[in-house]
Design a protein that fits this description.
Elements: H1 3-24, E1 28-33, E2 38-43, H2 47-54, H3 59-70, H4 74-83, H5 99-112
Antiparallel strand pairs: 1-2
Helix pairs in contact: 2-3, 3-5
Length: 129
């Protein structure tokens, strides 16, 4: 293995290690939600939460669970609303957001979870065999 290849592999390994460590960290963002005239804190989804969301049958269920898992304080709000008789199921709490804002919140959670991104993989060089 030549020196250039070895350095390239070392750099790739270093970046891969850093990437794996970064994916284990919980990341947060704060969003302003106009329909509530309030800010909400979102977090990235864990691998377990991602798997559960992806195993749901419909896009609507997936979006609702993404919000339920990704909005930090929503479980406490759901508990209070259920105790007050306002909702029957905890996940119904996501209906406090309008449809457009649900989609925007889901998109932000997916970006934070590194599931969705505007960054595209590009062809750098076509190799001939």
């Amino acid at each position: 293995m030549d020196k250039t290849t070895k350095l390239t592999l070392e750099e790739f390994t270093r970046k891969a290690t850093q990437r794996l460590q970064d994916k284990k960290k919980i990341k947060f963002e704060t969003l302003k939600v106009p329909c509530l005239d309030a800010e909400i804190k979102i977090k990235n989804l864990s691998k377990e939460e991602q798997t559960e969301v992806l195993n749901l049958e419909s896009d609507i269920e997936q979006d609702n669970m993404t919000i339920y898992y990704g909005v930090v304080d929503i479980k406490e709000v759901a508990k209070a609303l259920k105790e007050a008789g306002e909702i029957k199921e905890y996940t119904e709490v996501v209906n406090i957001f309008n449809l457009q804002q649900k989609h925007q919140i889901v998109r932000k959670i997916l970006e934070l979870s590194d599931i969705s991104s505007n960054k595209k993989v590009e062809v750098v060089e076509n190799l001939k065999n």
